[in-house]
């Protein structure tokens, strides 16, 4: 599979879960420690770790270790990449609309 398609699949997988979307919403306020995210997201520690791995692997979130805790933040470059992928998909839509005719009118 094309590397661009793999990247797109990772990003869309990261965005297709309600818990991961809640994590992203929380991170919009700035960097958060995993311990704080656990208070905000209704999941256990191992489940949070699973979701964070998916978000980090997608490039949407960055992680940094500080002693015992891991701190997470939104990655602007990852979101720019996601937006570019969506823009690329959307570019073809007007052309598609021109080729489809509707006999409803």
From TrEMBL:
The HTH arsR-type domain, residue ranges: 1-97
Entry's Gene Ontology molecular function annotations: DNA binding; DNA-binding transcription factor activity
Keyword field: DNA-binding, Transcription, Transcription regulation
Pfam families: HTH_5 (PF01022)
Gene3D superfamilies in alphabetical order: Winged helix-like DNA-binding domain superfamily/Winged helix DNA-binding domain
SUPFAM superfamilies the record matches: Winged helix' DNA-binding domain (SSF46785)
Keyword flag Transcription: yes
Entry-linked PROSITE patterns: HTH_ARSR_2
InterPro entries in alphabetical order: ArsR-like_HTH (IPR011991), HTH_ArsR_DNA-bd_dom (IPR001845), HTH_MetalResp_TranReg (IPR051081), WH-like_DNA-bd_sf (IPR036388), WH_DNA-bd_sf (IPR036390)
Keyword DNA-binding: yes
NCBIfam families hit by this protein: HTH_metalloreg
Name of the protein described by the UniProt record: Transcriptional regulator
Originating organism: Youngiibacter fragilis 232.1
